[in-house]
Write a structure and sequence with these properties.
Shape: elongated
Oligomer: single chain
Bound molecules: 2-acetamido-2-deoxy-beta-D-glucopyranose
Largest sheet: 8 strands, mixed
Structural class: alpha/beta
Number of strands: 15
Number of helices: 17
């Protein structure tokens, strides 16, 4: 089903749901080992650098230019494959125009945009997504003037019409929260890092999506977008077509009209897949965004500085989380910096196991039960809170509020793990993803690391973690209902991580 694919947090079927809630018994044991506080500052596997652009400035978007007689040249603020920030970008009749006297200072258009057609992994689909000059065109000032320019001597004004503020132009809408918004915010925040405050998004435009298409069935996409950026305006395909048709040259007209965008973040999934970090390594479009700001812009501390926190806090405030909850991570790091507190400084350790037993890809029933038993034993012994949840039994608010307190998130590979983007980042925060043995995908592994948390892929009674390199693999059984897991192994992994043995 198409809608389900676009959901941020896909709900699981209501059947076979189990909700076990074990309140934190006061069994805190004094443990005195040395948890290592900081994780590696870099998530980058390979240090290939793109050759385009220079260090992006940290200044916020400019105010409106004088467009009556001037057409400011397009500036490339920052770029990574699939993610580009421009100032003074133009659009007429559906074509994005880069106005420049230095065309060589811009990347190849195929690294910035595409035709926006749906992506299939076939040679035909790859070819039909290659952008042409109809999608994006680089023109010089003379040509721009001949198309839309006025004349000071005759007081004829430019035919340039401003769209002010910051526009996020999203050519796709797949994996809405953990890819699209995650990548957009990473790239934006990283580019304008140091600006205070970080400029906000004024509008989001989905040129290729109808209002129904970018929304998902459970409604998580709108919930997330509206709570994270309450004053954002959304335009979809019909609004974009209005802007296209009103700037189309009519028969007999010699001069057209053009829209001027102040600042634009252009995101394109097909273009991101043409970059090595996404296309060859992680299959995460957002990985190009993060790599772009961490490496090219030299923001090496970026990943440790809570880049996602403004978005997370907005969403969680919307669901009613209080300051105490929002600051779980901050308090844990403060304690951990002063010494070696138990549980990495986390006051209340919360283990959340997202059960998928009601939907297709899931654990062998006995192994699911064995896992629950092992987690119950662990949490009872340590005085931790355990939640075994089928997310669809909870409202969106309850799901997000639970994620906001979760230290250890355990679950079979699947969309439910997207909740990790709402977890508090603490010295021991961990995502444990259960795969069919030898199966692997980077979706949640990369996302977890981008938040400076730890990820383990578990294959029954073994596991792997970064920087061990694992390639995507979908063996027979990957999507099945007989995924094995040895519960005591998972419990041991959690306990060792809490005690600082796995950093
Ligand atoms: C899973 O691990 C347990 C404990 O080591 C073992 O007994 C069981 O055979 C394993 N199952 C599979 C399918 O490897």
């Amino acid at each position: 089903m198409r809608v389900a694919l676009h959901s941020c947090f896909r709900a699981i079927s209501r059947r076979d749901a189990l909700l076990v809630f074990i309140g934190a018994a006061s069994l805190h044991l004094l443990y005195s080992v040395s948890p290592s506080v900081h994780q590696s500052s870099s998530i980058i596997v390979n240090t290939h650098l793109s050759s385009h652009g220079s260090l992006p400035p940290s200044s916020p978007p400019s105010s409106i230019s004088n467009l009556d007689y001037e057409m400011p040249e397009t500036e490339l603020v920052s770029h990574a494959p699939g993610w580009t920030i421009f100032r003074n970008l133009y659009m007429a009749d559906g074509t994005l125009f880069i106005l420049t006297s230095k065309p060589e200072s811009f990347p190849d258009i195929k690294l910035m945009t595409s035709t926006g057609l749906p992506a299939l992994n076939t040679p035909e689909s790859i070819a039909e997504r290659m952008p042409t000059s109809r999608d994006m065109s680089i023109i010089d000032p003379e040509e721009a003037h001949s198309r839309w320019g006025g004349d000071r001597s005759t007081k004829e004004l430019n035919r340039v019409f401003p769209i002010e503020g910051s526009t996020v132009l999203l050519n796709h809408y797949y994996h809405f929260c953990a890819e699209l918004l995650f990548g957009a915010w990473a790239f934006w925040h990283g580019t304008f890092w140091g600006a205070s405050p970080i400029p906000s998004f004024t509008r989001a435009i989905f040129p290729h999506a109808t209002p129904e298409e970018w929304r998902d069935g459970p409604g998580m996409n709108i919930f997330f977008l509206r709570s994270a950026w309450p004053s954002l305006t959304v335009e979809t395909r019909s609004d974009w077509l209005d802007r296209v048709t009103t700037t189309r040259l009519r028969a007999g007209e010699h001069k057209g009209r053009v829209w001027w965008f102040d600042t634009v973040l252009l995101s394109d999934r097909s273009a991101a897949f043409r970059g090595p970090e996404c296309g060859e390594r992680t299959q995460r479009t957002a990985a190009e965004a993060v790599k772009g700001v961490v490496e090219r812009a030299g923001r090496t501390g970026f990943l440790e500085r809570g880049w996602w926190e403004p978005v997370r806090r907005n969403v969680l405030r919307f669901v009613g989380a209080n300051d105490r909850t929002l600051d779980i991570g901050t308090r844990a790091y403060m304690r951990a910096e002063r010494g070696t507190p138990p549980n990495g400084g986390v006051e209340e350790v919360v283990v959340t196991y997202i059960s998928r037993q009601g939907v297709r890809r899931h654990l062998i029933p006995e192994d699911h039960e064995g896992l629950v038993r092992a987690l119950v034993e662990l949490c009872h012994r340590r005085g931790w809170e355990l939640n075994v949840v089928a997310m669809e039994r909870l409202s969106k608010e309850e799901q997000l509020a639970l994620a906001a307190r979760t230290t250890f998130l355990v679950g079979v590979h699947g969309n439910g793990l997207t909740h990790l983007v709402m977890m508090p980042i603490t010295p021991i925060s961990t995502v444990i993803e259960l795969f069919y043995p030898e199966g692997y995908a980077h979706d949640y592994e990369w996302t977890t690391r981008a938040l400076n948390m730890k990820h383990f892929a578990v294959w029954n009674h073994t596991s792997t973690t970064y920087p061990e390199l694992t390639w995507p693999n979908y063996p027979e059984g990957f999507q099945g209902e007989q995924i094995p897991v040895y519960g005591p192994y998972v419990a041991k992994l959690i306990e060792d991580r809490a005690d600082g043995y796995l950093t």
